[in-house]
Write a structure and sequence with these properties.
This is SAM-dependent DNA methyltransferase. The protein is of the alpha+beta class and about 450 residues long. It has 2 domains: about 220 residues, no CATH class; about 200 residues, no CATH class. About 45% of the residues lie in helices and about 15% in strands. It has an 8-stranded mixed sheet, sandwiched between helices. Strands 4-5 form a two-stranded antiparallel sheet. A two-stranded antiparallel ribbon has the order 11-12. Strand 1 and strand 2 form a beta hairpin. It is elongated. The protein starts with a strand and ends in a 5-residue tail after the last strand. About 40% of the residues are buried. The N terminus is likely disordered.
Length: about 450
C-alpha cells in the first residue's frame, strides 16, 4: 500500500511512496546531509547558502507573481504563460537547470514518449505542461496509440524504460514532482511541491527545502552513470538510516513485549489471568496475541498523538489540553524518561485503561471519537482485567518510544512512520515463539531462544 505523508514541518511538500523518508527533508533543510557545502551547489565559497536562498526566493516570487496575474487571461496562450514564461525560467534561473532544452521526439522500443524538455546533459527528462492538465488524470495527448495516460504515468513509464535516466521532473505550474525509476506502476513514488501554496502563502521554509533538495546539482551526475548523482546517494543513505531505525524499533517492540508479558503475568492482581493460563482456558499463543494488540494500541497512540490526528475535528483546545495532561500516552512517555516514577503501584495502568475505554466508546468531554476496532473490549480481555506495575509499564513504554544511538537516547519518530514500516515490524514479531514458564511460585514470559 502506497503511503502519502506530509512532513510535519513542511506544509507544501509531500512524499509519496519510498522515494525519500519524509524526515530526511528536514535533514536537508538543516544542511546536515552530505554534499551541502556552498561549492556543492555551484555557489562561490565567499557566499552563504542562506543568503543565496533568500535571493532565489525573491526571483521565484517575482516569477510567480507575473504568472499568477497572467494565467487566468483567456487571450494568452496557456502553454506560453505556464511553461515558457513560468516553469522554464523557474527551473533555469532559480533551480539552476541552465542547460534545460526542448526535447525532440523520443522513441524507445517503438513507443513514443511525448516529453517536453531535458536537462543535466539530457539525463534528466522533464514534462512541463500548462495548468489545466491534472498530473494524475489520463489524457490522449500523453498516451500512445490512442490510449489515455496521465502526465505522471508517462514520465514514470519513460524512467522505467530508459536506462540513461534515473530521475525526472513533471510539473503543471501549480505543482511540481520529482520522480525516480520505480518498478511498480501501481505504487506511485515521488516528492511533490505545491508551488501555488508555497508562493501564495509565502512558505519560505518549504521553498528552501525544495531548492536544497532538487537543485540541478542534486540530479546532475558526475560521469555518464545516472546513479552517480547526489540525490541518489542521499536516497541510499536515508534508506540505510531508516533500516537501522526500523531494526531498533523491532528490538524495542520485542523488549516491550517482554516487559508487558512478564509484568502482567507476574503481578499479584493478575490471579484470574494466571488461572486461565494454568487451566488452558487461555493459551500462550492467545496471551501473546493480546500482548501484540496492546503494543499496537500504544503504537497507534504514539503515531496519532504526534500527528495531532486523534481528536475529533470539532474538539476544542481545552478538551485537547485536558486529554494531553491527564490521559495521553505522551505524558507516560515523559514519565518513562524519568526513573523516579518507576514504582510498584498500578495507577498508570488504570489510567491507561480509561484512555482505551474512551477510544473504544468515544469520550465527547475529551474530544475523542469512538474508534472501536483495536480498542474494543474483546481485543485484550484478559490483559484489561489484569494488572501491571508502573515500573514494568514505563519500561515497556520506554522501549517503544526511544532507543540508544551510541551514547545518546533517540526518540522513535512515529510522526513520519508509515504503514509499510509498521507492517514490516509487525511481520517480524509474528516469527517470535512465546513461552510461559511456570512453577509453584513464579511465572516467566519469554521467547524461544531467550535465556531464561
Amino acid at each position: 500500500m502506497a503511503r502519502t505523508r506530509r512532513s510535519h514541518r513542511f506544509t507544501a511538500l509531500k512524499v509519496e511512496g519510498g522515494i525519500l523518508p519524509p524526515d530526511f527533508l528536514q535533514t536537508i533543510a538543516e544542511l546536515e546531509a552530505p554534499r551541502q557545502a556552498s561549492s556543492d551547489y555551484g555557489i562561490s565559497k565567499s557566499l552563504a547558502i542562506k543568503e543565496e536562498l533568500a535571493r532565489y526566493w525573491r526571483i521565484a516570487s517575482d516569477l510567480y507573481s507575473a504568472y499568477a496575474e497572467r494565467y487566468p487571461r483567456e487571450d494568452l496562450s496557456p502553454r506560453r504563460v505556464g511553461v515558457s514564461d513560468w516553469l522554464v525560467p523557474l527551473l533555469r534561473s532559480v533551480f539552476n537547470y541552465d542547460d534545460l532544452k526542448k526535447a525532440g521526439r523520443i522513441t524507445l522500443d517503438e513507443r513514443e514518449y511525448r516529453l517536453t524538455h531535458h536537462a543535466c546533459g539530457s539525463s534528466v527528462p522533464l514534462l512541463l505542461v500548462p495548468r489545466h492538465f491534472d498530473m494524475d488524470k489520463a489524457d490522449r495527448r500523453f498516451g500512445h496509440e490512442g490510449r489515455r495516460q496521465a502526465p505522471h504515468d508517462l514520465m514514470q513509464e519513460f524512467l522505467n524504460a530508459e536506462d540513461a535516466s534515473l530521475w525526472g521532473i513533471v510539473s503543471n505550474g501549480a505543482k511540481l514532482r520529482i520522480l525516480r525509476d520505480n518498478p511498480s506502476l501501481t505504487r506511485p513514488s515521488y516528492l511533490e511541491a505545491d508551488l501555488e501554496l508555497i508562493f501564495e502563502e509565502e512558505l519560505y521554509p518549504d521553498f528552501a527545502a525544495l531548492w536544497l533538495s532538487i537543485h540541478a546539482s542534486r540530479l546532475r551526475s558526475t560521469d555518464d552513470t545516472p546513479s552517480d548523482c547526489i540525490i541518489e546517494t542521499w536516497r541510499e543513505k536515508a534508506h540505510e538510516t531508516g533500516e537501522r531505525a526500523l531494526e531498533n524499533l523491532r528490538v524495542g517492540v520485542t523488549e516491550s513485549l517482554r516487559q508487558l508479558g512478564n509484568g502482567i503475568v507476574q503481578h499479584q492482581d493478575s490471579k484470574d489471568l494466571r488461572a486461565a493460563l494454568d487451566k488452558g482456558a487461555l493459551s500462550r499463543e492467545q496471551y501473546f496475541q493480546q500482548l501484540l494488540r496492546l503494543v499496537y494500541r500504544l503504537i497507534f497512540l504514539f503515531s496519532t498523538e504526534e500527528r495531532n490526528l486523534l481528536h475529533s475535528p470539532e474538539a476544542t483546545e481545552e478538551q485537547r489540553k485536558v486529554y494531553a495532561e491527564g490521559y495521553s500516552l505522551s505524558r507516560l512517555r515523559e514519565r518513562a524518561e524519568r526513573r523516579r516514577h518507576y514504582d510498584n503501584h498500578r495507577d498508570l495502568w488504570q489510567s491507561l485503561q480509561i484512555t482505551f475505554n474512551a477510544l473504544a466508546r468515544g469520550a465527547p468531554p475529551l474530544g475523542l471519537p469512538a474508534l472501536g476496532g483495536l480498542f474494543r473490549s474483546d481485543q485484550c480481555p484478559d490483559l484489561d482485567s489484569a494488572a501491571i506495575s508502573n515500573e514494568r509499564l514505563l519500561e515497556a513504554i520506554r522501549s517503544l518510544s526511544s532507543f540508544l544511538s551510541g551514547s545518546a537516547l533517540v526518540r522513535v519518530n512515529y510522526r513520519d512512520m508509515g504503514t509499510e514500516e509498521l507492517g514490516s515490524v509487525y511481520e517480524s514479531l509474528l516469527e517470535l515463539q512465546p513461552l510461559i514458564v511456570a512453577n509453584a511460585t513464579h511465572w516467566t514470559f519469554i521467547f524461544l531462544g531467550d535465556t531464561n
